[in-house]
């Protein structure tokens, strides 16, 4: 089935697909402190977000400061701070969608909806917007991005990029 080209939203330009990973470079400013392991810049993340994302047994190490999230798909580091405190992928409760081996790959952390589920909703249910797709999987879903999304930012850009992927597949 081919969709009318005009129906495809074009407001998702800031999304960049690096390899197979959707990375939104407009989420946050880039940190000036580099990841101690891969030496690449991450994005700033508030302490409150990190506290909710790390595993219980790691909580003590979090302290009071803010963190940075390593955005390199190949690097095992999740959060780091300027004192080189590191929480790697194994230290946190959810897989980071942009890391190379993320499984499952969440598009929405609030409702725990995977990228594949979003694509499926587009292909099989003909749903094309975030609100309807969230409602389909999680009735009465609430936005809790600040404590559920590992970036502390809204899931919508990555979610919308997954919708676009589904629309592309449908063509
Ligand atoms: Zn890194």
3D architecture notes:
The chain is of the alpha+beta class. It has one domain (8-170): N-terminal domain of TfIIb (Single Sheet), CATH 2.20.25. The chain is 29% helix and 15% strand. The chain contains six helices and eight strands. It has helices spanning 47-53, 59-62, 115-125, 130-137, 145-148, 156-170; strands at 15-18, 21-24, 43-45, 67-69, 77-80, 86-88, 106-108, 113-114. The strands form three sheets. It has a four-stranded antiparallel β-sheet with strand order 3-4-5-6. It has a two-stranded antiparallel ribbon with strand order 1-2. A two-stranded antiparallel ribbon has the order 7-8. The longest helix is centred in the C-terminal third of the chain and has 15 residues, at 156-170. The N and C termini lie close together (6 Å). The relative contact order is 0.18. Bound molecules: zinc ion (ZN). It holds the Pfam family zf_CopZ. Residues 34-93 form the CopZ zinc binding domain. InterPro entries: BFD-like_2Fe2S-bd_dom_sf, Znf_CopZ. This is (2Fe-2S)-binding protein.
């Amino acid at each position: 089935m081919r969709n009318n080209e005009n129906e495809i939203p074009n407001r998702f330009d800031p999304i960049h697909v690096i390899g197979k990973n959707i990375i939104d470079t407009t989420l946050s400013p880039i940190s000036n402190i580099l990841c101690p392991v891969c030496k690449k810049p991450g994005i700033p993340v508030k302490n409150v977000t990190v506290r909710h994302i790390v595993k219980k047994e790691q909580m003590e190490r979090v302290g009071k400061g803010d963190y940075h999230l390593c955005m390199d798909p190949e690097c095992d580091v999740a959060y780091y701070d300027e004192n080189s405190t590191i929480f790697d992928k194994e230290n946190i409760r959810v897989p980071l969608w942009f890391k190379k081996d993320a499984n499952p790959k969440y598009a929405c952390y609030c409702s725990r909806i995977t990228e594949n589920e979003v694509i499926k909703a587009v292909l099989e249910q003909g749903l094309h917007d975030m609100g309807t797709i969230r409602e389909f999987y999680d009735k009465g879903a609430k936005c809790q991005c600040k404590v559920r999304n590992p970036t502390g930012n809204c899931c919508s850009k990555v979610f919308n990029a997954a919708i676009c992927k589904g629309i592309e597949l449908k063509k």
